[in-house]
Amino acid sequence: MEKVCSRNFIKIFAMFENRLNAAFQGNTEFLRGGSVNDIRRSGCCEYEKRLVSKDKVALEVDILFDKLRDDYLYYSYNIFFGKNNKLMFHYEPTHTEHFQPHANVYVGKQELENDRGEGIHIITHKYHPFEILSMIERYFV
Amino acid sequence: MLFEKIRVLFGKEERQQGVVIVEREEFAQKMREKFRGNRELLKAIEECMNRSVKKHEHVSLTD
């Protein structure tokens, strides 16, 4: 899988967008965003998407990419499903707790916690958008 | 890598379908609202937005 970088960011998220829309074709209640926003005379790009299916699966995708440093400033993929359940894939290198890519799991609006009441961040690799897409296609369409 | 940096700095990005060009101030305002209170992230976005423009064109996201 081609690593996301400034050279292919637009192409990869255009493919992400097309595949996501195709997966939910005929089953979409609400849709917003979906274009790559290229900020004029700036070194960053943004991709943002909101989708709610008729089955009430909701997706929120927020991506900020630093083109010069070839890395994310921020990414967040939220998948809401069932009765107040949420899967969240997050990476925010400037944040003291979120600088490692991780996943959070919420069941019935409650984040999975350890015995000390700390939310459990499941440390992951830096997820490729197509990996998230494959998971959405497998479990939530 | 050097060529890539020069291309980014001078904005020679190929315009492709599905890409929307957003004005700097419009984007800055959106980021201020979206990430209000997250100073570190706003600083990083600000640095990214300002590094290739002259000082009088700089935007501030954290004032």
Provide structural commentary.
The complex is a heterodimer of chains A (about 140) and B (about 60). By secondary structure, chain A is of the alpha+beta class. Chain A is globular, with a radius of gyration of 15 Å. In chain A, helix 1 (about 10-25) runs parallel beside helix 2 (about 130-140). Helices cover about 20% and strands about 40% of the residues of chain A. Chain A has one domain (about 10-140). The longest helix of chain A has 15 residues, at about 10-25. In chain A, strands 1, 2, 3, 4, 5, 6, 7 and 8 form an 8-stranded antiparallel β-sheet that branches. Chain A is built from 2 helices and 8 strands. Chain B has about 60 residues and is mainly alpha-helical. Chain B has a domain at about 20-65. Chain B contains 3 helices and 1 strand. Chain B has helices at about 1-10, 25-35, 40-50, and one strand spanning about 20. In chain B, helix 2 packs antiparallel against helix 3. Chain B is globular and about 35 Å long. The interface between A and B is medium-sized, with 30 and 28 residues. Strand 1 (about 30-40) of chain A pairs parallel with strand 1 (about 20) of chain B.
